[in-house]
TrEMBL record:
PROSITE patterns: SOLCAR (PS50920)
Protein name: Mitochondrial uncoupling protein 1
GO molecular function, one term: amino acid transmembrane transporter activity
InterPro entries: MCP, MCP_dom_sf, MCP_transmembrane, Mito_Metabolite_Transporter
């Protein structure tokens, strides 16, 4: 079992690696959120409106078109919308989920997690730390999604001036049409817990397993190339498994009209079809795949230097 001091060191090194990866990849995350929030296009716009680029233009050509559209219509800085709550989230969520992983894994195996550990123990440990971490960090996720969604093409305009203003507005928001309050910071907690527990298990357990597998192969050593391959594998598994709950989470956090997780799932399936649950898949893979590579490479180097 890790000591308090070793947990603190692992927590801060994990938080640093997660925050660095967030800064590098958040434009892809912004594009992913915009794509996931899209509904089916309404009837064709009048020629004037179509020329003006109103309404449903964002994301029509996929991830690259979405990024270019955001940069053109809202400015390049808009691609980093949500970076402040994103860093809040990664500091808490990234630090906790990775910092707790080894001690929780040791708990599941009944001692020190040394040598080969079963894949089931890795999955259980990652599911557990994912749940704990996101329950703490979910308000930061909500604010990040809302800031990213609050673009010109979005129909729900909140006009937050920044992350702190968003937290404060949500807590005190009471009007004839919107009633939120402090509990609203945990809007979408159900799909968020499901999404992050699943993705955390896919990322940490698969990275751990891929790395263990590669190190048994001839010619592989514990180096950057091995970390890169393991990170890519972890990202791919995370996106394939987590995309449906990720879409539901983004829609619930971006649109407060859904009554529950099941309501959001049912309406998305009815109105947009099953393909909607993998909307933004390429953007999501580019984001999570590159995020995992950057985060794990950074984490391994930081651990090698300081731990």
């Amino acid at each position: 079992m890790a000591t308090a001091s070793s947990f603190g060191a692992v927590f801060f090194s994990s938080a640093f690696a997660a925050c660095f990866a967030e800064v590098c990849t958040i434009p892809l995350d912004t594009a992913k959120v915009r794509l996931q929030l899209q509904r089916k296009a309404p009837p064709p716009l009048p020629p004037v409106a179509a020329v003006a680029g109103t309404g449903w233009a964002v994301g029509a050509g996929g991830m690259l078109a979405t990024i270019l559209s955001i940069a053109k219509e809202e400015g390049v800085a808009a691609l980093w919308k949500g970076i402040v709550p994103g860093l809040h989230r990664q500091f808490l969520y990234g630090g906790l989920r990775i910092g707790l992983y080894e001690p929780v894994k040791a708990f599941f195996v009944g001692g020190t997690a040394v040598g080969d550990v079963s894949l089931l123990s890795k999955i259980l440990a990652a599911l557990t730390t994912g749940v704990i971490a996101i329950v703490v960090a979910s308000p930061t996720d909500l604010v990040k999604v809302r800031l990213q969604a609050d673009g010109k093409a979005n129909t729900v305009k909140r006009n937050y001036s920044g992350a702190l203003n968003a937290y404060a507005t949500i807590i005190r928001q009471v009007s004839s049409t919107v009633v939120e309050g402090i509990g609203a910071l945990w809007t979408g907690l159900g799909p968020n817990v499901a999404r992050n527990a699943i993705i955390n298990a896919a990322e940490l357990a698969s990275y751990d397993q891929f790395k263990q597998m590669f190190l048994k192969l001839p010619g592989f050593t514990d180096n950057v190339f091995t970390h890169l391959l393991a990170g890519l594998g972890a990202g791919f598994f995370a996106v394939c498994i987590g995309s449906p709950v990720d879409v539901v989470k983004s829609r619930m956090m971006g649109d407060s009209t859904y009554r529950s997780t099941l309501d959001c799932f049912a309406k998305t399936l009815k109105n947009d079809g099953p393909g909607a649950f993998y909307k933004g898949f390429i953007a999501n893979f580019c984001r999570i795949g590159s995020w995992n590579v950057i985060m794990f490479l950074t984490l391994e180097q930081v651990r090698r230097l300081f731990l």
